[in-house]
Amino acid sequence: MKTFLALLIAFMTASETNSYAQSALPNTSVKVTGAVTKPLTLSVEDLSAMKQVNVSLKEHDGAVRQYRGVPVMEILQAAGATVGKELRGKNLGKYLLVTCADGYQVVFSLAELDSSFTNRQAALVWGLNGKPLAAEQGPFKLIVPGEKKPARSCRQVTALSVGIAKE
Ligand SMILES: Nc1nc2c(c(=O)[nH]1)N[C@H]1C(S)=C(S)[C@@H](COP(=O)(O)O)O[C@H]1N2
Ligand SMILES: [Mo]
Question: Residues enclosing ligand 1, CB less than 6 A?
Fold first, then answer.
């Protein structure tokens, strides 16, 4: 009986891992490109090794959910974008364009994401309550705390691109 139970648990664990791998198929990483010195392709493993914060979002269904993820600013810093002390003068004309699997796109000024300007830090998350995000939400979601609606919190994020606004 013990052996049977052990086998059953092993089988269930294996099939869970497998279904996660399948749900993560559309994009297993997020690209960081544009006006950065070190373009990156970040996997869940890469993000797990970076600084983590808690971020909560009041979602469309009215529920407030708390996620854990990496501040976008940390990602921008790792990619060599101008953050912190470097975010002044002409660099304040820079923006981050977030692109999702369905083509949805959202823009932030770099200053909106920087801890030297704001305490409301946007974060890239990949799990909720210790589980991977549902396929229609993930594998990667951008959470923007403290806004009146969740419209800039992006599902199925595929790319973060730094641009320079010009007139
Ligand atoms: N990829 C993607 N993210 C998106 C959207 C979208 O169309 N595509 N819509 C936004 C809007 S307008 C809202 S209100 C919320 C809705 O989130 P939900 O569908 O997860 O409740 O997602 C935001 N993020
Ligand atoms: Mo919306």
Answer: 59-61, 100, 102, 104, 149-151, 153-156
